[in-house]
Design a protein that fits this description.
two-stranded antiparallel ribbon; 32% helix; 10 strands; alpha/beta
């Protein structure tokens, strides 16, 4: 009731950020993404494992033409996280940006970094992932099983930004030594274990470590429009809604490449 900015039949989506209070200090300053009373879609209210759902109007993002609902779903989660973090980082076109990990977040991070004009270096375990990394737009690939990835980045001059998308605290801790002076380790993966950072090179090279959560609905719309215009797309497996439990298990097991999307059978 009373909603005027959205029209019946309009194509929309909802991301991780499922609404904000408009009253806390962050909201009063316009920083809705850091709302102290943030609603999370699927936690604060029922999410998208159903044919119909209700969400606050401020959480809703418009879907552009050229992006299907199936493709939009991961872009509203992993997509906005990688796109929004990279565009708010310190790197400029032509700078070296390394994407650590080539999974659900990383395969989108490589695409976004490439389309944003960065010298994109993909880092993952195993030589078998190099063809995929190059297909996604990586200029170079580093196999962290075969070489010291941080040392290889330093041979290139150091990375202005390392986007950490692999949920492995030890690997993230090791890769930060590949930063350039004034470089930033940008953490979007959540491994659940503490990171270890050597303070000496952090101080002497004026490096930094930053986390990035996601974004709000307008950020989702920016992500979707950029993706539609540049051809960034998630790699997905589609399953009907009635197989949601099987799809969830496939995702948690790491067997899916790279996101399971539930379809409504229409």
């Amino acid at each position: 009731m009373g909603v005027t900015i959205w029209k019946q039949g309009q194509r929309i989506g909802v991301g991780w950020h499922g609404g904000h209070c408009f009253q806390c200090d962050a909201c009063r300053r316009g920083d809705f993404g850091l709302c102290k009373n943030e609603k999370i879609c699927g936690i604060a209210y029922d999410g998208g494992y159903q044919e119909y759902m209700i969400a606050p109007e401020e959480a809703v993002a418009a879907l552009p033409d050229g992006i299907s609902a199936d493709e939009a779903a991961p872009l509203l989660c992993a997509g906005i996280t990688t796109f929004n973090s990279l565009r708010n980082a310190v790197a400029r076109s032509g700078d070296i940006v390394a994407v650590h990990g080539l999974g659900g977040l990383g395969h989108l991070g490589v695409q976004f970094a490439s389309k944003m004009g960065f010298h994109t270096v993909a880092i993952a375990r195993g030589a078998d992932k190099e063809p995929l990394a190059k297909q996604l737009g990586a200029d170079q690939y580093i196999d962290s099983d075969a070489v010291n990835a941080a040392q290889e980045l330093q041979k290139l001059g150091g990375a202005r930004v390392i986007l950490a998308t692999a949920p492995d605290s030890k690997a993230i801790s090791a890769i930060n030594e590949g930063l350039s002076s004034n470089g930033k380790l940008l953490v979007v993966a959540a491994p659940g274990q503490p990171l270890e950072v050597n303070p000496i090179p952090l101080i002497t090279a004026r490096r930094s470590v930053q986390g990035w959560p996601s974004g709000i609905a307008p950020d989702s719309e920016d992500t979707l429009r950029f993706s539609a215009r540049t051809g960034v797309r998630p790699m997905i497996e589609r399953l009907p809604l009635e197989k949601a439990a099987a799809g969830y298990e496939r995702m948690i097991s790491g067997k899916v490449r790279f996101r399971v999307v539930l379809t409504m059978g229409r």
